[in-house]
Amino acid sequence: MGAVRVADGAGVSVAVLDLGSGETVSYGDRAFVTASIVKVDILAALLLGAQDAGRELTGAERSYAAAMIERSDNAAASALWDGIGRAAGLDAANARFGLTGTTGGDGTLWGLTRTTAVDRLRLLRQVFGEESELGEDARAYVRGLMERVVPDQAWGVPAVADAGTASAVKNGWLPRDATGLWVVHSIGRVTAGGRACLMAVLSDGNAGKAPGVTLVESAARAARTALGERPSPAD
After folding, report:
1. For residues 64 and 76, what is the distance between their CA atoms, to the nearest angstrom?
2. What residues form DSSP beta bridges with 171?
3. Do residues 139 and 168 touch, judged by C-beta distance below 8 A?
4. In the prediction, which pLDDT does 204 show?
5. Residue 184 is part of which domain span?
6. Burial class (CB in 10 A: 0-12, 13-18, 19+), 75
7. What does the pLDDT read at residue 225?
8. Exposed site from 35, 71, 184, 217, fewest CB < 10 Å?
9. Cβ pair 158, 188 in contact under 8 A
10. DSSP codes, 17-33
């Protein structure tokens, strides 16, 4: 991370899990507001509740879920946020998922949920790992939506993916009213250097969305390098 240019006033945190070895590397431990990366969390909580009730998602819920993840539709997220019981429902699901550093936003403000990069890895493990509170069908459903994010939102962690490999991603971006500075995040699964990895890069204090994307992708590349310096399980 020493080679990553971080503008004055900006902050960044990164966490990466090598799915093959189980090894994690991370940088920074502070909390950030989530912006739209919480949409993966909202969907996971919805699926957990449906699983507990022994039911499938309704047609409306599936429509909202697709719009929320693939296009980052905010109205769809708000509808599902209400459906899970807002912050109380999110926090209850997260307790079962093993998240310890995430707190749901007040009232209707799902985008002001606070989280850490390490907690984003814990959530991603619920979606992409084998040991999960979610059943395989639910995990596959979330993975499929994250793999179909519209092309203009497929920046961030996919920038470090090996050529020809598929990525699953959800990004978040939000200008803060009080400062005009931007929160820019990216989370997902990539194959980098031949390793299947879960990656979360969180940043704030950015002068705009574009500088935030540049910071996130630079930090992701640094994290990929850190993993690449360590022997793989086969070495």
Report:
1. 5
2. 186
3. no
4. 97
5. 11-228
6. exposed
7. 83
8. 71
9. yes
10. EETTT--EEEE----EE
pLDDT tens, position by position, 82-133: 999 999 999 999 999 999 999 999 999 999 999 999 999 999 999 999 899 9
**Cα separation, 193 vs 160, whole angstroms:** 9
What pLDDT does 176 receive?
A: 95
CATH code at position 141: 3.40.710.10
Q: How many domains does the chain have?
A: 1
For the sheet with 11-18, list strands across it.
Answer: 24-27, 11-18, 195-206, 182-192, 168-175
Question: Residue 92, exposed/middle/buried by CB under 10 A (0-12, 13-18, 19+)?
Answer: middle
Provide the pLDDT for residue 233. Answer: 44
Kindly give the parts of the chain with pLDDT less than 70: 228-235
Alpha carbon distances (Å) from 160 to 78, 98, 131, 134, 194: 31, 27, 26, 28, 11
Dihedral of alpha carbons 222, 199, 167, 151, sign: negative
Query: What pTM was estimated for this model as a whole?
Result: 0.94
Alpha helices by DSSP H, 111-235? 117-128, 136-147, 209-228
| Residue keyed to tokens 């979330």 | 142
Residue at token pair 């890895």 = 121
Tokens of 190: 């990539």
Whether 234 maps to a domain, the answer reads no
In a domain, 2, yes or no: no
H helix or E strand, kind and range, residue 93: helix 86-97
